[in-house]
Amino acid sequence: SEAEIGLGDIEWDRGHRSAALEIYSRVVEAQFGGNDAAGEATNLAFGKALERLGIAFMVENRGEEALHCFKRACSLAVGQDFLSRHNQLIALRNLGNCYNQWQRFDEAKAVFERAVLLGETLVAEKSRSVETQRAFALALLGAATSSLGLDAPSEALPLIQRGEACQQELSRLSPALAGDALYFKAERLRAERMVRGRSWLSGESHPE
Of 23, 34, 46, 141, which one is least surrounded by beta carbons within 10 A? Predict the structure, then answer.
């Protein structure tokens, strides 16, 4: 299963999206038989395949299929060990991002609230990893995006600021992640423009 997922990743990186999607689908439906109650090791691989398949569906604008994959991935990562909860955070973040992409911001916000609460717990633990800290930072960013979609920039800004603080720490730990700063900056500027626009409309200031 892991080897097949790796093969799908290679095809994806080469730009062969249809081939990758076919491989991920085969891993999920044929090898695992759609059985969500498999053993722990199988579930980890199943969840990874569902994640890849869901992302492929998102890129192909197949929203409902992507949501189905991410919801199934969330249902798999139910253990209380650190790895299961880390995978739950990833699955929730993917599900929230999918809702955001299709502008279902209320549903996205509810999912990201769960993700942020879980991420806060995980990053406070000694066994946290760079990957977990990044997942938490990106969950904060996703939560901010859903708040902006709901026209609530005052809610989004604190989330972005927390995410930027996490991202800056991550950049020191792993310089390869420095590029994430661009995503936070883009959303912060959008939120600040929305706040300034509201102030101008209320007569408190003038737009720049």
Answer: 34
